Please model this.
Amino acid sequence: MAPVNRLYQVPLGEFVKARDALARELRDKGEAGEAKRVASLRKPAAALWVANQLARAAPKEIGALIAATARARDAQAAAAHGKGGDELREVMREQREALQKLTLAAAAAALSAGMAPNHALERRVQNTVQAAAASDPEALREGRLERELEPMGFGSLVLESVRQPPAPADGRRQREADLERKRVQSELKKAEARAQRLAANAEQAERDAARAEEAAAKLRERAMAVRRESDEAGAAALELRRRS
Model:
C-alpha cells in the first residue's frame, strides 16, 4: 500500500494531523517532492471521505460497479448501431443494483463516523463513485480518490435511473425495481432517524457529564476544606499534648 493511501483510511477528523505526519515522514526519507504533494492535499469533504470508505466497507459492490461500467461502454456502442439493446439494459440494471447497495453502505459509513446521512450526501457519493468507476477505477477500488467527481454522458444517465428507474421490460422487473427503491429509501430513513437519536443521546450525555464534573469539582473542594480542618484540628491537638 502506498503511504498516501493511509490518509484515506483515518477518521475524517484526524486527516490533517495524519497528512502532516506523513509529509514529515516523507521529508525525513528525502522524498521532498512527494512530501510537498502530500502536504498540499486538502481535507476531504464528507462525501469524498465516505466514498473512499466504500473500498473497505463494500469491496464486492465496488468491484461489481467497476465491472458493469466497463461492460457498459461496449454495450452502449452496440446499442448506438441498433444492436445489443438487451445487453445494455442488463448492464444498466447491474449498475443500478451496485449503486443502490453502495448507497446503503455509504449511509452506514457515515453513521459510523457520527455523520447524519442525507439525500445531498447520498447524491454526491453516487456521483463520485459512478464517475470514478469509469475514469479512475483503481483509485476507487483502493479508496484513494482525491476529489469529488461528476459523471458524464452515460454515467449520468445511470445515476438518474437509480433515482427514477426506467420502466423495465416486464411487470416483474418493475415490481422488483419498485420494491428495491422502497427498501433503500426505508433503510436511509431508518439510518437518518438513528443518527438523530444518537446525536440527541450524545448531547444529553455531554450535559450529564458536565453536571457530573461540576458536582465532582464541588465535592473535591469540600473534601479539601474538610482535610484542612482535619489538619488544623490535628495540629491543635498535638500542641495541647506538648503543653500538657
User: Anything to note?
Assistant: The CA atoms of residues 6 and 76 lie 37 Å apart. Residues 3-39 form one domain. The chain has two domains: 3-39, 46-188. The mean pLDDT is 82.
